[in-house]
Specification:
The structure is a homodimer.
Chain A (H helix, E strand, L loop, with lengths): L2 H7 L7 H7 L3 H6 L9 H22 L5 H11 L2 H10 L10 H5 L6 H18 L2 H11 L1 H8 L6 H11 L4 E9 L6 E8 L2 E8 L2 H20 L1
Antiparallel strand pairs in A: 1-2, 2-3
Chain lengths: 229, 229
């Protein structure tokens, strides 16, 4: 993959291709080419980090209207963190475009998670500078947010706490009950029901009672969210 | 001050005044008025924090083209932190507009730095939602960034390190020399000169040798910045 096909594949078109290339330039490469005054991606990474924080914050704020600030903050930290950004970077094939120094290449720098996470942030920073916030948001909507939607971060979401906080604000109580156990012993699944006061408001299935309750709370939150809108 | 005069004073006009009021609503007030379903400012604070991070990052990125990523990050952390946000909040008179619960009011909550810093962030979040990023940036440019420009954060800026990093990238060396000491013993001031290789590129004055060198490095960086543009 080259920069041309990368841009075509992800439907972006940089006005300033130098900026695009700078986003992929590790400091080890810039150091090896000092005379040509090549700029590395570190300052772009600084900017991109903030662009990404806002894009993800806005996405979560709008997408999860019932989630508390604490829960939102936790989820954001799970999305904007090195392991996630590394994953996005590899998914997009960014590792193939990185300019790194010879020493760094020899020691496997091209696949180093921290380096690739930085490249992802630097790319976001470059896109923001070259175009604007909305264009950057569109890129993320097409290429990154779907990963969030398929539940890749659901391990970080504590639906029971979210629901608890929400119903407490209304002065109500939430409770759970295991209403069914299915499957043979070695492959047992539980079904939990969730109640607000005495009203049944969702069921969930899981390999543990806790997981079943989390799924039930999630369904219940989704239902409440639809009612509120 | 009421919300009307606050908006007039700072030249903002909310389309959705509820959102403006929500930004000033501490959770203790919302808890005391549960029946009227008043929303507190916590989710707005989550969003505002990210808006502020990006606004400040962009401001620093553009304003300090020679500053390294490490230096930018340090400076941003010094601007987007509780003591600074508390100061901005008080400067803008936000403390007078806060809705807090009776218990919180009785224990001096209205002047609590953390509470006021949160209100500042929530206001920024509300402005962003009600309008857009550019409008929020304009508000900050008029009312907050000037505080940065007058050097309120210069204690956080290590000009000597910035200059060092910059000249090293060009393969050059920087050095300092105390060229004068002025004033009587009890009010001594030092004058430092800064050299890149052997070229004199700035002088600075200070009450300690270190301070004088920092000021000299700052002058030198400003000169280099002008040359680069």
């Amino acid at each position: 993959m080259d920069f041309q096909s990368f841009q075509e594949k992800y439907n972006v078109k940089f006005k300033n291709e130098q900026l695009l290339k700078q986003a992929f330039t590790h400091t080890s490469y810039a150091n090896e080419h000092r005379k040509s005054q090549i700029k590395d991606n570190e300052r772009l990474e600084f900017l991109g980090d903030a662009v990404l924080e806002l894009a993800v914050s806005q996405y979560l704020y709008r997408g999860y209207p019932l989630m508390s600030e604490g829960e939102l903050t936790k989820l954001r930290a799970n999305i904007v963190c090195e392991p996630s950004l590394h994953k996005f970077s590899v998914q997009l094939g960014m590792d193939k475009l990185v300019y790194i120094g010879k020493g760094e290449e020899a020691t496997g720098g091209r696949s180093r998670p921290a380096l690739l996470a930085d490249v992802f942030e630097a790319f976001i920073g470059a896109l923001y500078l070259d175009q604007n916030f909305d264009a950057t948001l569109n890129f993320l909507k097409s290429n990154v947010f779907p990963t969030i939607e398929v539940g890749a971060f659901s391990h970080a979401m504590d639906y029971k706490s979210s629901l608890q906080e929400f119903v407490q604000k209304q002065g109500q109580q939430v409770s759970y009950q295991i209403v069914n156990e299915i499957g043979p012993d070695h492959d047992r699944q539980f079904v939990a029901a969730c109640y607000i006061e005495d009203r049944h408001c969702g069921e969930g299935k899981g390999r543990s009672k806790k997981e079943a309750e989390q799924r039930a709370a999630e369904r219940c939150l989704t239902a409440l969210k639809q009612t509120e809108q």
